[in-house]
Amino acid sequence: QVQLVESGGGLAQAGGSLRLSCAASGFTFSSYAMGWFRQAPGAERELVAAIRWNGGTYADSVKGRFITSRDNAKNTVFLQMNSLKPEDTAVYYCNARVFNIDYWGQGTQVTVSS
Asked: 87-96: string of b/e by CB count within 10 Å (b at 16+)?
């Protein structure tokens, strides 16, 4: 079965950095795009970044600050978050759409203090 397990969240100060990881299993990882979403309290879940075989795409709110990458040999996708802002505070989720079914990790909390 498809499993996604995030790690790397925590507390950072504004201007700081955090790196999230998502370990995937149960599907042919290299064949699928992977996404990073986040959900702040009282807000909708939003797409932050996605990565296919030809690079990443980003929401305007994180463009130039966040970088997503993947290691297909380790079935892992990463989200490097730089120049963090308090508005980046949210639970971050890894996503894979496999055979038109969305799978989610358990989420990891990112809190940015001002």
From this structure: ebbbbbbbbb
Sorted by sequence, the CB contacts under 8 Å of residue 54 that are 6+ apart come out as: none
pLDDT in tens, 40-70: 999 999 999 999 987 899 999 999 999 999 9
Residue 48 contacts residue 92 (beta carbons within 8 Å): yes
Mean of pLDDT over the chain? 97
Q: Which of 10, 4, 24, 2 is nearest to 108 (CA)?
A: 10
Chain centroid to CA 58: how far? 11
Please count the CA atoms within 13 angstroms of the CA of 57 that sit on its side-chain side.
8
Q: Let me know: does 109 contact 9? Beta carbons within 8 Å.
A: yes
